[in-house]
Design goal:
Layout lengths: L2 H4 L2 H4 L4 H25 L29 H5 L13 H21 L4 H24 L4 H17 L9 H30 L1 E14 L3 E3 L4 E3 L11 E9 L4 E9 L4 E3 L2 E3 L7 E11 L5 H14 L1 H24 L12 H12 L3 H19 L12
Antiparallel strand pairs: 1-2, 1-8, 2-3, 4-5, 4-8, 5-6, 6-7
Length: about 400
């Protein structure tokens, strides 16, 4: 039996549709169990294959009968069978969300194309993993972004319907265009944001003392860990100090520049780890600030490879709206400060999910409006016989 026959919806039809619904939900829960491994291990640079699943506390190797998605976590009350240490509810949540995502893909696309439903389910699995990793670590691993870009391109070749195309050539072109627009557009926004908002000047009263410890910058009203300031090796803390005191020396009227790689005071420089404590007196400090990381660029490129450039533009705008609403709500509730860092990847993922399940006629209307906008502002030709309606 060939691949086309395996995924031909007509060959699945003799079995009741909602039997397959249950199968897809169970498949999603199994995939969710694997995603939990990826979410835990990828940010730590660990293999997702070896060693086998084990308790992170006592290293107890989990047998297969204690690794049943959803059921095992509920049966054991969210605790390790061996040491009774608590297991995060995130494990249960990821399995449940992935199961629901697979079920939703089957219900929405299963009658149209089993293979299309499978590709969308695979995309949603990647979005789920990226979301949980970004929330916890503020990164999206290359295995998801670069790997997702490659998988999206291959899937576009196998399933032209992913791009509403009738031919492989058209689907491949739309995938490449989505990849380029996704990565390029977000990269331009990243560079522009760095240029306009990449630094934050904090004005302080005259003769304010700032303490630089091994782990954080200590301002009069708050402590800022270095990991919240140094997202890249090129990020620099700058201040013009009236006095600078180290353990063994003192400077006056000196420019201080601190990056992850070096500390510079005037013309002298050292590796930061060689200076465990420093005190500076000044009237202001310039802190680095990052609105978006390069992982988001690669993430949007992967989404573009799967869904095309129209979906990229939709995801950019929708994610900005979602992120703004969530961010402002957290600030109002006192859960975040205005200067707090928020992961952007989860909002991109949420917007991409909205696009996947957006009715086809709304997707077509969005694409048409983008073509009209391109014609009006950039003189991009419309399809033959089309008009702007103006």
């Amino acid at each position: 039996m060939g691949l086309d026959a395996i995924f031909d919806s007509r060959n699945w039809a003799p079995v009741p549709f909602h039997f397959w619904s249950l199968v897809w939900f169970m498949l999603g829960c199994i995939v969710g169990s694997f995603l939990n491994v990826c979410i835990h291990r990828l940010p730590l640079g660990m293999s997702v294959i070896a060693p086998p699943s084990h308790c992170p506390h006592c290293k107890y190797s989990i047998p297969w009968f204690l690794n049943v998605p959803l059921v095992t976590w509920l049966w054991l009350g969210g605790k390790c069978k061996n040491c009774r240490a608590p297991i995060s509810p995130r494990y249960f949540l990821v399995e449940l969300v992935t199961g629901v995502a697979f079920l939703a893909c089957w219900l929405a696309f299963g009658r149209q194309s089993v293979l299309l439903a499978l590709v969308y389910a695979m995309l949603l699995a990647g979005l789920i993993a990226a979301t949980f990793i970004d929330f916890e670590h503020f990164i999206i691993p290359d295995e998801i972004t670069i790997g997702g870009t490659v998988v999206g391109f291959v899937c576009s070749f196998l399933v032209p319907a992913l791009h509403h195309a009738d031919s492989l050539t058209t689907a491949m072109k739309r995938s490449v265009l989505g990849l380029v627009v996704g990565g390029g557009l977000i990269y331009l926004i990243l560079r522009l944001g760095k240029l306009l908002f990449g630094r934050q000047r904090v004005e302080l009263p005259e003769n304010t003392k700032i303490v630089f410890s091994e782990t954080a910058v200590h301002l009069p009203d708050k402590d800022i860990p270095y990991e919240e300031l140094f997202y890249r090796q090129s990020d620099v803390i700058t201040l013009q100090a009236r006095t600078v005191e180290l353990v063994d020396r003192c400077y006056k009227d000196a420019l201080v520049r601190l990056s992850p790689e070096r500390l510079m005071i005037g013309e002298e420089q050292w590796p930061p780890e060689k200076v465990p404590h420093m005190e500076a007196v000044c009237a202001g400090i310039v802190l680095p600030r990052e609105a978006m990381g390069f992982g988001d660029v690669k993430f949007m490129a992967a989404i573009g490879a799967f869904l095309g450039w129209q979906a990229v533009v939709f995801s950019l705008l929708a994610s900005s709206l979602i992120g703004s609403v969530v961010g402002v709500s957290l600030i109002v509730m006192g859960r975040r400060e205005w200067s707090s860092r928020l992961p952007y990847g989860p909002y991109i993922a949420a917007a991409a999910v909205l696009w996947v399940f957006l009715p086809a006629h709304l997707q077509e209307a969005w694409a048409w409006n983008l073509r009209v906008a391109g014609h009006l502002f950039f003189r991009i030709p419309l399809p033959d016989g089309a008009t702007t309606g103006m």
